[in-house]
Amino acid sequence: MDLPFGGAKGGIAVNPKTLSRDEKERLTRRFTQELRKVIGPNLDIPAPDMGTDPQTMAWLMDAYSMQEGETIPGVVTGKPPIIGGSKGREDAPGRSVAIITQLVCEYYDQQLSETTVAVQGYGSVGANAARLLDEQGATVVAISDVNGAMYDPAGIDTATVPSHDEEPEAVTEYADTVISNDELLTLDVDVLIPAALGNVITEANADDIAADYVVEGANGPTTSTADSILADRDVMVIPDILANAGGVTVSYFEWLQDINRRSWSLERVNDELDEEMRAAWDAVRTEFENRDITWRDAAYIVALSRIAEAHEARGLWP
Ligand SMILES: NC(=O)C1=CN([C@@H]2O[C@H](COP(=O)(O)OP(=O)(O)OC[C@H]3O[C@@H](n4cnc5c(N)ncnc54)[C@H](OP(=O)(O)O)[C@@H]3O)[C@@H](O)[C@H]2O)C=CC1
Ligand SMILES: O=C(O)CCC(=O)C(=O)O
């Protein structure tokens, strides 16, 4: 039986191989019950981490710790800061999306103050990205939740619209003009940030994407066929593994804090995240420029080269 670990709003460091079959079954039942209480049928949707929150991660820590007889905070990340979570973890993926969007704009000589942005999903990733970009001077013209999108070509004051965490399914209630989530994806904006479900940019709508830049906030929002269509159309797609990596990066910071029994300040978390994101951007940009490939291929080359080097260092490479 597979444990429903990983990919939630934090990572988990349990090695299922070290658990007995009975322990696995017990943990799986407990986790699934608790998760279903929160996200109900959504447990079966393609992005199962949507709708979970730091409390969910606290349950995971407690369920595991009960088996161990002591609290093991480092076993799972994305927890509330008061019980071993990291400050800044909730905002981190949206913050990294905003940092990367800023770097993309700088790279293509696109002034942020003259940049329009549409964001699908208004949760941990979408709302934080939208609000940071809004604060930095971009014009956020569309945001959405499961019910549809708020659209205002003059710009939305993102701070006044509650995020999923603050009030789920509220975006359209605050809107004068509502459009569909599908329409949001094809708006004529500079930057499109899909930050909800996977597989929303497909063969069926890739030709209609009017944005110049797609910065992937969600995991896997673009199918591979759509990716090729966008590449042929010179739409720059900045891949999820770079853009939303703030989440997993601050999860790593959280694990470091937990195993060292330390708590970092928010300023330190955000400074170190900024540094990591800029270093990742530089590494990907170098491959992009040297090889004349897509941003996604450049990110894969950076990642796979590191794995290959690690194999080589161990003498494992044929
Ligand atoms: N949180 C994290 O650490 C990370 C998350 N991701 C990925 O980012 C994406 C979003 O996750 P996250 O922000 O954490 O999730 P949240 O649960 O915090 O927010 C999800 C948002 O998407 C909206 N939504 C739900 N269903 C749909 C739909 N069918 N169409 C449009 N919008 C919808 C929700 O609306 P409503 O309020 O109405 O429910 C909510 O605004 C996922 O793909 C996730 O895998 C990637 C990296 C890290
Ligand atoms: O924190 C993590 O390890 C996972 C974060 C996350 O949800 C993701 O990157 O998709």
Give your account of this protein's structure.
Residues 1-10 have low confidence and may be disordered. This protein is of the alpha/beta class and 318 residues long. Helix 1 runs antiparallel to helix 2 (54-68), helix 8 (246-259) packs across helix 9 and helix 9 crosses helix 10. The chain has a 7-stranded mixed beta sheet. The chain has helices at 21-39, 54-68, 92-107, 126-135, 181-185, 224-232, 240-243, 246-259, 266-291, 295-313, and strands spanning 116-120, 139-145, 148-151, 178-179, 191-194, 213-215, 236-238. The chain folds into 2 domains: 1-78, no CATH class; 92-245 and 279-302, NAD(P)-binding Rossmann-like Domain (Rossmann fold, 3-Layer(aba) Sandwich). The chain has 10 helices and 7 strands. Strand 6, helix 6 (224-232) and strand 7 form a beta-alpha-beta unit. It binds NADPH dihydro-nicotinamide-adenine-dinucleotide phosphate (NDP) and 2-oxoglutaric acid.
Supply the helix-strand structural class: alpha/beta
Shape: globular
Series of secondary-structure elements, N-terminal to C-terminal: HHHEHEEEHEEHEHHHH
Low-confidence stretches: 1-10
Q: Say which CATH homologous superfamily of the largest domain is assigned.
A: NAD(P)-binding Rossmann-like Domain
Distance between the termini: 34 Å
- Report mean pLDDT, rounded to a whole number: 90
Radius of gyration: 20 Å
Characterize the main sheet. 7 strands, mixed
Give the CATH level 1 class of the largest domain: Alpha Beta
Query: In percent terms, what proportion of residues is strand?
Result: 5-15%
Identify every distinct bound molecule in the structure, by name, code or SMILES: NADPH dihydro-nicotinamide-adenine-dinucleotide phosphate, 2-oxoglutaric acid
> How many individual β-strands?
7
The percent of residues in helical segments reads 40-55%
- Could you say how many structural domains there are in total? 2
Protein name: NAD(P)-specific glutamate dehydrogenase
Keywords: Oxidoreductase
InterPro entries: Aminoacid_DH-like_N_sf, Glu/Leu/Phe/Val/Trp_DH, Glu/Leu/Phe/Val/Trp_DH_C, Glu/Leu/Phe/Val/Trp_DH_dimer, Glu/Leu/Phe/Val_DH_AS, NAD(P)-bd_dom_sf, NAD_bind_Glu_DH
Subunit structure: Homohexamer.
